[in-house]
Specification:
about 550 residues, alpha/beta, six-stranded mixed sheet, 17 helices, about 30% helix, globular, binds zinc ion
């Protein structure tokens, strides 16, 4: 036994001594390579072989690794950074509904709806895509029932806004029989205007009063199309924060057929209100925790305990008039007892938990449940997360730290700043997603967008976190700014850490997966505004060019 091992090692040594040095499949030279390694080193050139970085260094050393069949890319001074990641991305937006993503005023939005009404049959339900927000409209408010009635008196209209909210016109309220007498559902809200009339807004679980036409089934082609859009923005890795097992099976099929152009980590989202129901739901999927490889991997279980912009669950009431005279504190979508039961069961089954929690009261609920699970079986080192974590309080940081949580943070404020000031008042809005505070307390923060709630551009995430600027509301929470280097880490190596992959990706170092982005300008030193406007030149995943900008 011993002798055989020694012999095998000797053979390997002889073989490697006789093999010429490994040739690169591709080299990139004359660049400004921001490696995002531990020392944040800068290099000139990169060699890639077998989908991994073979070497990183000076032009001459890298050129010496080229052979007759090596592809050479002359960067002409452009900047290379590691492939960018999004730790919380649902999809790339778009869809068959009315597109409101380009509307900049209430009139723009209503015109788009009127146009769809003109091309529809009597009684047909008009639905919008979800990738828009009222903060992008110059009025900084939602179009309400009365606005929608003006352009669609007869056809039911349902505006879908992000993941937490619908706005209905009168025909839609009538269709689903929603009146002033309809009782409020737990975990939801039917909103009223100043006069006490329904304004058409349904929040969180109140959305279940509406039955929308089934969306077209998700297909491989649709996923491929989305991934192409994400590649063009510089994304090489994404984490789907809660999707059904059917989507995971499509991604696995794409992996088998070699169709993936982006690395995917998927959190499962299952319908279960008790530990027992969760155990059964998991068994029905046949999926194991963390199964997969560097292309498609299961990253844990997604849960949620509160709403979004208009339903984040707070210790203190919302700003008026949203606060309903000090009574409205947001929406608690899953109560403590069933949530804790589910969390403990997931821990017993070896699943990592990622919970959507926006408000401070929601974070309280998450910490209580995670602590209960941790008391049974430690979760330290398992990288459980809080997704969003908008409004952490001083007393919560040490509790998060003791559980060794990772923070999955996004740039919601960039899009929704003025609305958050309305809902929560200026102080809470300015504190929203305090990345500086998290980093100063030693948390690993992974960046992302929550697309299609917020547009998927990773460069906008970097821009927002380094400036705290917003699309239409100026700078909010200037004291929470982070450095360019910190922001780059959020978008690269910290995301790799989030998915336990920091040893194989997230920086440009020999042996790591060859995922990178070519930028026209040095993102570490250029003026702030250039980051917001910058276009990606090229994206490479696993050594393959998946996007090249047409000049
Ligand atoms: Zn989300």
């Amino acid at each position: 036994m011993m002798r055989a091992v020694v012999f095998a090692i000797a053979l390997v040594t002889i073989a490697s001594a006789q093999t010429p040095p490994r040739r690169a499949d591709m080299i990139l030279v004359n660049g400004h390579v921001v490696t995002v390694d531990g020392a944040f080193s800068i290099a000139e050139a990169i060699a890639i072989a077998d989908g991994k970085f073979l070497a990183v260094g000076g032009n001459a050393a890298i050129r010496s690794l080229a052979g007759p069949s090596t592809t050479t890319i002359d960067l002409q001074g452009r900047t290379v950074i590691p492939g960018l990641a999004d730790g919380h991305l649902h999809d790339a937006g778009g869809g068959p509904g009315v597109d409101l993503s380009h509307a900049r005023s209430i009139a723009d939005a209503l015109n788009a709806i009127a146009d769809r009404v003109a091309h529809s049959t009597p009684g047909e339900v008009i639905v919008s895509n979800s990738d828009w927000h009222e903060a992008q409209l110059k009025e900084h408010r939602l179009p309400y029932r009365a606005d929608l009635d003006r352009v669609s008196p007869a056809n039911p209209v349902v505006l879908v806004r992000g993941g937490h909210e619908y706005i209905l016109n009168s025909a839609a309220l009538a269709k689903w029989n929603i009146t002033k007498d309809t009782p409020q559902l737990p975990g939801g809200r039917i909103t009223r205007d100043h006069a006490g009339e329904l304004n058409g807004e349904l929040i969180d679980r109140a959305k279940s009063l509406v039955r929308l036409p089934a969306p077209p089934p998700l297909t491989i082609e649709a996923l491929q199309e989305q991934h192409r859009k994400l590649n063009a923005a510089g994304l090489t890795s994404i984490r789907y924060p809660g999707a059904p097992v059917e989507q995971y099976r499509l991604l696995q099929e794409m992996r088998r057929r070699g169709m993936l152009t982006i690395r995917v980590n998927q959190l499962l989202r299952l319908n279960a209100d008790s530990g027992e129901a969760m155990r059964a739901a998991i068994a029905a999927t046949g999926v194991k925790p963390d199964e997969g490889d560097e292309w498609v991997r299961i990253g844990g279980m997604k849960l949620g305990v509160d709403g979004g912009f208009e339903g984040g669950w707070m210790r203190e009431p919302y700003a008026e008039p949203w606060g309903g005279h000090g009574t409205f504190r947001g929406v608690n979508t899953m109560k403590q007892a069933p949530y804790t039961d589910v969390v403990k069961e997931l821990n017993r089954l070896g699943w990592r938990v990622a919970t959507h929690a926006v408000g401070d009261a929601a974070i309280d609920e998450v910490l209580t449940a995670y602590e209960a699970a941790n008391a049974e079986r430690s979760i330290v080192g398992k990288r459980w997360t809080i997704e969003h974590g908008f409004i952490p309080e001083a007393d919560q940081f040490p509790r998060m730290k003791a559980l060794d949580l990772v923070i999955s943070a996004q740039d919601h404020l960039y899009l929704a700043g003025p609305s958050l000031v309305n809902y929560w008042g200026p102080k809470r809005a300015a504190w929203t997603t305090p990345v500086r505070a998290y980093l100063d307390r030693g948390f690993v923060v992974a960046g992302g967008t929550d697309s299609a709630v917020v547009p998927y551009s990773p460069l906008w995430v970097i821009y927002h976190f380094v400036t705290r600027d917003t699309i239409s509301g100026g700078v909010l929470g200037q004291d929470q700014r982070i450095t360019r280097k910190e922001a780059l880490r959020l978008e690269t190596i910290n995301n790799a850490y989030l998915t336990f992959e920091e040893r194989i990706k997230g920086s440009i170092e020999p042996g790591k997966l060859a995922d990178l982005v070519v930028l026209p300008e040095d993102i570490v030193t250029c003026p702030d505004k250039h980051i917001e406007q910058m276009q990606v030149d090229m994206t490479i995943v696993g050594g393959n060019v998946v996007y090249r900008r047409r000049s």
